[in-house]
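F.,

This is the one I mentioned.
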């Protein structure tokens, strides 16, 4: 899932997202907060200067944008696609390396940030490899099912099946990035 940075039409110029002139950014928290901070840091600014407001849903984020409570918002493209199509928000950029969904990537626009969001299926460490094989096979078969393909299309998701070493390395990279961003933002566990 790609992150999309959006603002209200007629609001602020897209360049303001990373030059310190956007004063209130909102999203779902977690990866959205980290991505917003990454954009601020890529612009050479202090990520702790970011005023970030977490929301419990994309609908709440869009309502806050419409009410002028936020200067910008970060969320998955699927959360904003209808509002983008309706012209109630304007997409500034997307977090992939290259343009997606007709939206230029931030990297292509000179803001060197990239972040994907993913979901995984996990089991306890006590599960043996012979026990894991049929479970992994079942999950992989599910990704071939029409209902999964429909969910991909409906939510503007992209399938990225990974297992074994490739999956472990992706998790390790994401955990390292998360640790750095949590440290830079001075976040603490609740």
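My design for it:
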């Amino acid at each position: 899932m790609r992150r999309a940075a959006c603002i209200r039409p007629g609001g602020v110029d897209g360049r303001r997202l990373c030059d310190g002139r956007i004063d209130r950014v909102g999203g779902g928290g977690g990866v959205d907060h980290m991505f917003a901070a990454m954009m601020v840091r890529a612009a050479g600014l202090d990520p702790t200067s970011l005023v970030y407001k977490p929301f419990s849903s994309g609908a709440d984020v869009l309502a806050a944008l419409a009410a002028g409570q936020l200067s910008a918002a970060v969320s998955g493209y699927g959360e904003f696609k209808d509002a983008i199509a309706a012209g109630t928000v304007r997409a500034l950029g997307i977090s992939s390396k290259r343009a997606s969904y007709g939206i230029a990537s931030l990297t292509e626009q000179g803001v060197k940030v990239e972040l994907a969001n993913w979901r995984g299926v996990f089991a306890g460490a006590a599960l043996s490899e012979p026990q894991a094989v049929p479970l992994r096979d079942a999950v992989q078969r599910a990704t071939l099912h029409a209902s999964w393909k429909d969910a991909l299309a409906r939510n503007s998701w992209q399938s990225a099946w990974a297992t074994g070493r490739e999956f472990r390395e992706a998790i390790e990279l994401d955990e390292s990035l998360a640790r750095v961003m949590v440290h830079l933002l001075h976040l603490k566990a609740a």
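The longest helix spans residues 164-184.

Talk soon.
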